[in-house]
Design goal:
Elements (H helix, E strand, L loop, with lengths): L20 E4 L2 E7 L1 H4 L4 E8 L3 E7 L3 E8 L2 E5 L2 E5 L4 E4 L5 E5 L3 E9 L3 H8 L1 E2 L10 H10 L2 E5 L5
């Protein structure tokens, strides 16, 4: 039986001034709500990305991911499925199933609901703080080692746009 997180005991509100943000490759990722806000039940991430922003093919051990495409188009590879999603499309990516994505339009905006929370900590560690100078994105070796710490196995390169 899966252990359920403790229920929230007080209402929570976050705003842009209190939400963590990072640059992850060519994406601005804002953590709209993290595990510390939701008693670990979920995290809500907001990705603003440019064409070519991609996640390598990977498998989550602990989390399910749900993406809601707000703007632009994104190619998803999930198990044997390969499809492009536009505004209004919801893509549910269950844990244990290999998946990856790439932005195919000039820009895109995605909401990413991760259940349970935890993945947002990986994003913050892999990213570059907004106040830091922009640097080279982490290489596949760095992402693989970091992913292993968070129960994420990197199994292949990202797809092409």
């Amino acid at each position: 039986m899966t252990e359920m997180p403790e229920p929230l005991s007080v209402p929570v509100r976050t705003d842009p001034g209190t939400q963590a943000a990072t640059r992850l490759m060519s994406s601005l990722v804002r953590i709209r709500a993290g595990g510390e806000h939701t008693a670990g039940a979920f995290a809500l991430l907001d990705h603003q990305a440019e064409r070519g922003y991609a996640a390598p093919q990977h498998v989550h051990e602990h989390e399910d991911e749900t993406f809601f495409v707000l703007d632009g188009s994104v190619r998803f590879l999930v198990g044997d499925d390969d499809y492009t999603a536009g505004p209004g499309v919801v893509a549910v990516l269950p844990r244990g199933i290999p998946h990856s994505l790439v932005v195919t339009s000039p820009t895109a905006r995605l909401l990413n609901l991760v259940t349970p929370a935890g993945f947002e900590r990986f994003v913050l560690e892999a990213g570059t703080p907004l106040e830091a100078p922009a640097g080279a994105p982490p290489g596949i070796e760095t992402l693989t080692a970091l992913g292993a710490r968070f129960g994420i196995e990197i199994i292949g390169p990202p797809p092409a746009p």
